[in-house]
Write a structure and sequence with these properties.
This protein is α/β, with parallel strands linked by helices. 32% of the residues lie in helices and 16% in strands. It has a 5-stranded mixed sheet with strand order 3-5-4-6-7. Strands 1-2 form a two-stranded antiparallel ribbon. Helix 5 links the parallel strand 6 and strand 7. The chain is globular and about 50 Å long. It starts with a strand and ends with a helix.
Length: 211
């Protein structure tokens, strides 16, 4: 987590996030979402002070427990592997976002993103925006290294960038998503309360894994 303090306001950017399955360091897959929402390092000493702006370091690196969205993604992956009759997943899942700004309220994510962009020097904007969301070549290269690509987004946020990424993703055969009744790629946080979306994501992954 990177911390920006501007006019007594603390802005947090979650950068370079991975979820570990088993003990392999091989790339298992990637997930592309809107932005880090409510993620907290609740089990890590010093986190509360850091997010309040205390201490001299503006970088916080730790291993901790997944939030609800990531719990749902983990469940889909484990159930997908089981449904496909495969061994347990073993490797790293990389997490990418349209914006790295941590903001629980999706509707405010763009506002916070712009504030952080004004504070950060141009040369450090890669901390705010993952390069793969700005380059078709980088996006497809990362996707093609992965066994699967999970995608799900908050509705109505970062629309221009979202449409760009969705267009690129049409070239990917191993794309995993759960489409709601409005034709949207539902955000993983919905999968717990809407089991039909969870089951759709699991079935989508099962098909990809079985090839």
């Amino acid at each position: 987590m990177i911390r920006l303090i501007h006019d007594s306001e603390v802005l947090l950017l979650r950068h370079s996030t991975e979820i570990q399955f088993g003990d392999s360091t091989d790339l298992l897959g990637i997930v592309v979402m809107t932005n880090p929402g409510k993620f907290e390092f609740n089990k890590t000493t010093g986190w509360n002070a850091f997010k309040l702006g205390e201490g001299s370091s503006d970088t916080f690196i730790a291993n901790d427990y997944p939030d609800l969205s990531m719990q749902n993604v983990i469940r889909v992956i484990r159930c997908g592997y089981e449904s496909a009759g495969l061994l347990k997943p073993n490797g790293i899942l990389r997490v990418y976002n349209l914006s790295n700004v941590r903001q629980p309220d999706g509707e405010k994510a763009e506002e916070y993103h712009e504030r952080a962009k004004q504070v950060l020097p141009c040369v450090r904007h890669q901390l705010l925006e993952d390069p793969i969301t700005h380059s078709r070549e980088l996006f497809l290269d990362e996707c093609n290294k992965s066994k699967f690509v999970i995608m799900g987004f908050v509705d109505g946020v970062f629309e221009e960038k979202l449409q760009q990424v969705l267009t690129w993703s049409e070239e990917i055969e191993h794309r995993i998503c759960a489409v709601d009744d409005k034709g949207r790629y539902s955000h993983p946080r919905r999968w717990r309360t809407e089991p039909n979306l969870m089951n759709q994501a699991i079935e989508s992954l099962k098909i990809v894994l079985k090839g």
